[in-house]
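During the no-cost extension, the postdoctoral fellow (Dr. R.K.) reprocessed legacy sequence entries with the updated structure-token encoder. One reprocessed record is reproduced below for audit purposes.
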Amino acid sequence: MGGKKAPVKVGGFVKVQKNNAYFKTYQVKYKRRREGKTDYRQRRLMINQDKNKYQTPKYRMIARITNKDVICQIASAELKGDRIHASAYAHELKEYGLTLGLANYSAAYCTGLLLARRILTLKGLDKKYPGAKECTGEHFDLVEDEDRRPFKAYLDIGLVRPTVGGKVFACLKGAIDGGLLVPHSDKRFAGYQKEGSKLDAEAHRSRIMGLHVAEWMDEMQEEDNEKYQRHFSRYIKAGIESDSLEDLYKEVHAKIRADPKAKDPTKNMAARKAARANMKQRDFRVAANIAYTLPQRKHRALQKVNAIRAKLDLPPFQK
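Re-encoded structure tokens follow.
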């Protein structure tokens, strides 16, 4: 009865068989857990809101680092999913004069600063909370205004290991200097010394202003000029030298503060939905199911070979 089999005894060991009753009680994990993208225990703790606050959104500052980009967002959890209130990306820094090095520590700081100025502009707090006047690398305490409280968000770094000098904490520092209130400590910023339990502000500032890259450029140019020409060819082509990196980042910070280009993502949702509905759907299965004949396949293979031979300055094959 019940379909559950008794344990089978094999050579002194008891083998528990996974039978029908076992698989009936098996619960499939969430999709993003199966994909290894979301730590749901951490997410539950971050989005949990007090009952007496009703539907007051609990904001999170999301920081993600990819191979070529930096992503910063302000989000709050709703029943249908996360709502994005503002976002900033490192590739948008090209509009402010930063075209290279869009995934390093300095670019992460600029992206966090851009996010802070955008969300404060959208909330009407950009004048009351201008943030730090200049980047010093020191600890910055936000002075609360009497009329309106500062915009508060909690840092969400995802599955990244929180190491000292991590780029996600450069995003955090940029957002703090931009005027956001994010609960934090200085123990994960670049330049923090564990022995003395203090932050080396000068070392931290050198990372933010790209001085570590400038030092690397000078060392490589002195030791191996050919390697320097290859490694920093895009910097040389853009006319960026080691002496001008600090001034470049200062200009980027000033341009971000002058015009963060804040846009409310909820205003163009109707237009985006209409465009998506009017977009002609292409049936890719039709193209995939076309059966080519043998002469057609041979002709295509010959075209590919001749294209490669043309790049090598070789004469093409004939049929």
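Strands lie at 8-10, 13-15, 59-65, 70-78, 81-89, 154-156, 192-193, 198-199. Residues 218 and 224 are 10 Å apart (CA to CA). The remaining legacy entries will be reprocessed before the final report is submitted.
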